[in-house]
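quick q for whoever's on today - can somebody do inverse folding on this one?? i tried earlier but teh output was garbage lol. C-alpha cells:
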C-alpha cells in the first residue's frame, strides 16, 4: 500500500497543476481586458483566422485607415484578396510573428504620423498583442476581440498563448529575439 502513495501524490499534484493552469488561462486569455471601440487613426487586423472579415462581425468599430497583416507565407489565401482594394493597407511582417506584426505596424504608423490604433484579434490573443503593441508603438493602443468558439479551439489557444507569453517574458523589448530567431 505504501508504494502507491508516491504515485497518488504525483497524480494529485499533476491534476492540481492542470486545474490551476486552466483557471489561470481562463482568467487571462478567455476574459481579457478589451476596449470599447473608439475612433483611432488606424484599425489593424492581425493575420488571425478572423482577420479583416471581422469587419462584418464588429459593426461597432469606428474604422480609421484599415491595415491588414498579410504574412508572406500565407499571402495567397483567399481572405487576402481584399488587399487588392486600394482602401486597405496590407503589410507583410518580418518575422512572421505577432511581434513582427507589431514592429511592422509601428514603422507604418511612424511613416504616416498615426498616434492611435485599434487592434483587432482573437480573444485569447488580446493580452499578448496589447503588450507587444505597447512595446513597439508609442501611441494609444486600443484592443478589441473577435470571439473564439469551441472547447478544442480554447484548449489549443491556452496552450499556444502560454508558450507565447513565456516568449514575451524573455524578450522584453520591441526588437528582442530569441537566439535562434536572429
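ok took a stab at it. sequence:
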Amino acid at each position: 500500500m505504501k508504494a502507491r502513495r508516491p504515485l497518488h501524490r504525483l497524480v494529485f499534484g499533476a491534476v492540481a497543476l492542470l486545474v490551476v493552469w486552466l483557471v489561470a488561462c481562463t482568467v487571462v486569455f478567455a476574459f481579457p481586458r478589451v476596449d470599447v471601440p473608439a475612433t483611432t487613426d488606424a484599425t489593424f487586423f492581425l493575420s488571425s483566422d478572423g482577420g479583416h472579415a471581422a469587419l462584418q462581425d464588429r459593426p461597432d468599430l469606428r474604422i480609421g485607415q484599415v491595415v491588414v497583416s498579410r504574412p508572406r507565407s500565407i499571402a495567397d489565401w483567399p481572405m487576402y484578396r481584399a488587399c487588392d482594394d486600394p482602401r486597405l493597407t496590407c503589410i507583410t511582417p518580418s518575422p512572421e510573428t505577432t511581434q513582427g506584426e507589431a514592429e511592422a505596424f509601428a514603422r507604418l504608423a511612424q511613416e504616416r504620423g498615426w498616434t492611435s490604433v485599434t487592434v483587432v484579434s482573437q480573444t485569447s490573443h488580446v493580452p499578448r498583442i496589447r503588450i507587444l503593441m505597447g512595446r513597439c508603438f508609442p501611441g494609444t493602443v486600443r484592443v478589441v476581440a473577435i470571439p473564439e468558439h469551441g472547447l478544442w479551439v480554447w484548449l489549443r489557444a491556452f496552450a499556444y498563448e502560454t508558450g507565447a507569453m513565456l516568449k514575451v517574458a524573455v524578450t522584453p523589448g520591441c526588437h528582442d529575439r530569441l537566439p535562434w530567431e536572429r
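fwiw The beta strands are 42-45, 65-69, 88-91, 116-122, 140-146. also The two ends are 54 Å apart (CA to CA). so keep that in mind when u check it
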